[in-house]
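Attaching the record inline, Q. Sequence:
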Amino acid sequence: MGFKSIVIIVTIAVYGINAQNPCSLDDFDCIREHFAANSQCDPLTAFPHIPDSFSAANLRFKAPYFNLSHIDQSVTITGLENCAISVLLANESSRVTKLTFDCPNLHVEAARAFIIHNVDNPDERHYYMRVAADYESVQLSQSIRNSNNLNICQGEATAFTSLPTILAQGYDRPSIAFISRDDLGNFGPDLDVWSRECWAARATSVFRFLVNNRICDFNC
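Structure, as predicted:
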């Protein structure tokens, strides 16, 4: 049984037998009409196709497991035109709508600053590099409350990802030495943790980008 099948089964189990699919997953006219009829979004400004890339000038987030902070600048995520809706379930009892995008083959690039915090030393260490990561699959989901007054701007999205392939290039000698010493491209057995912490900062922005450009514009 594949990952997608498991997620669908778990989703149905969590959302219960009262969860209904209001539209065929490839019928975007129906999906846009459903969201427009049950929200204050503007379907007239939604584009029929998702732009290829998402960009952000600055994303700051923490990776607590590694005792790191990240500052990503000039973030670009490409491949989003291939994202497809894999789950759309509306539960009449709980009035929660579950929306999920499956996105294959995403490429992420950013100019990154790593800030390493050391509890035994008040001096932080800073390293600067260009990071590129390829993800075979990324799944973005949000449970949207108030099914008759949907608003993606009032909630947060989550992400599940495959393990990425990472290439990092340091901007200066200390950063190059840090990358080589700590094997930044692999993170050993903890790469999955690092990937989850990175996407925890991106998931909501990218999810909203997909909804606003393909389904209905919530202006957030």
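The first helix runs from residue 3 to 15. The domain at 3-214 is CATH 3.15.10 (Bactericidal permeability-increasing protein; domain 1).

More tomorrow.
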